[in-house]
């Protein structure tokens, strides 16, 4: 059977044939799943991923356009057995057919375990699982952030358990916990919780406080069901969280990579609620016990201190006696000081009297009292020679009872000189006649 009834087939251009084949293939294989081994993986600068799927006999080219979810990209590892979902198409430029992959996931437990082990070793070498990075869980948080599905038993178990133990404010960030897009939602929720300011966030729907602790949780399931919690973007988001994080994924025997990087792992979601808050009644009882012990201890301590104080008080002297003795000592010292001052002043007075008498004995006034005089110029300069006296027009003569000025006018001075010369001449004449 052919596509054309006429005996003469029509003539097609190369492009017509290519487009016809592309349309036919895409209509016939619009939704398929293909299982095979990944090889020849190439990440183009455009963000697209080119690879091939092979089995024992055949090879199928494939491409995953950029923007695919992390589960798909991580599954496209060299040598990994995967199941790809998408459609078949053709590439007219090379006359080839290829699979357009919408999603991919490891095929079978063996492939998943291989990928899981490789990823765990990689992240462990980077130090993401080191205990040095673990943050302490707050003892009594005000707000608990929960990242899980909004439906199902998990969120209800957490709410009820926290309400029973110690009611706290619960902030739910709803996410998918399985399947395509789950890993992206979980990592975005962790980052979103950490992005809330310490002072909280005001929104049109109300105030959103910043959580003090986070719980990432889901119920039990197969390895495939829990696979989103093994994705690298989820693990790195948990590692980068500045808010302490409790992982509670699956049952007690289930282990995912987020458990290694979380600050605390709980065996179940209910267990996470128990680790997030203490039991209020037990805390109250413990506080009552501690309060009683504190009061008892304080009572005994005060009694011991009171007894010790009384012993010291008995050994202390009477305060009144101490004060009286002190005042008596002050009186005694005051008397001694007064006597010492009196003796000092008397000694000083006697010394002053002696020095005064000694000064008087050396004073020129006592000499004047015996008939001597003191001759000075009007300015007070002492006259000690005849020549000094002859040069002054006025002299002050000091007696013991005061001073008397003596004025010598030029005429008097001249007469005095002439008289003196006359006396000298007469004396010389007498002497001559005698000879």
What's a quick, concise take on this entry?
The protein has 13 helices and 15 strands. The chain is of the alpha/beta class and 435 residues long. Mean pLDDT is 86; it is low at 431-435.
Keywords:
disordered C terminus, Rossmann fold, 435 residues, 13 helices, 47% helix, five-stranded mixed beta barrel, alpha/beta, elongated, OB fold (Dihydrolipoamide Acetyltransferase, E2P), five-stranded parallel sheet
Spatial extent as radius of gyration: 62 Å
Give the oligomer, counting copies of the same chain as homo and different chains as hetero. single chain
Which CATH top level class of the domain at 144-277 fits?
Answer: Alpha Beta
Helical segment count: 13
H and E order: HEEEHEEHEHEHEEEHEHEHHHHEHEEH
- What profile does the largest beta sheet have? 5 strands, mixed, barrel
Give me the side-by-side strand order of the main sheet. Answer: 1-2-3-5-4
Q: Quick check: average pLDDT?
A: 86
**Structural class of the helices, strands and pairings?**
alpha/beta
Principal-axis shape equals elongated
Helical amount: 40-55%
What can you tell me about this protein's structure?
There is one protein chain. The chain contains 13 helices and 15 strands. The protein is α/β, with parallel strands linked by helices and about 425 residues long. Among the domains are: about 15-105, OB fold (Dihydrolipoamide Acetyltransferase, E2P); about 145-275, 3-Layer(aba) Sandwich (Rossmann fold), CATH 3.40.50; about 375-425, no CATH class. The strands form 4 sheets. It has a 5-stranded mixed barrel with strand order 1-2-3-5-4. A 5-stranded parallel β-sheet has the order 7-6-10-11-12, with helices on both faces. Helix 5 packs parallel to helix 6. The longest helix has about 45 residues, at about 320-360. The protein starts with 13 loop residues before the first helix and ends with a helix. Residues about 430-435 have low confidence and may be disordered.
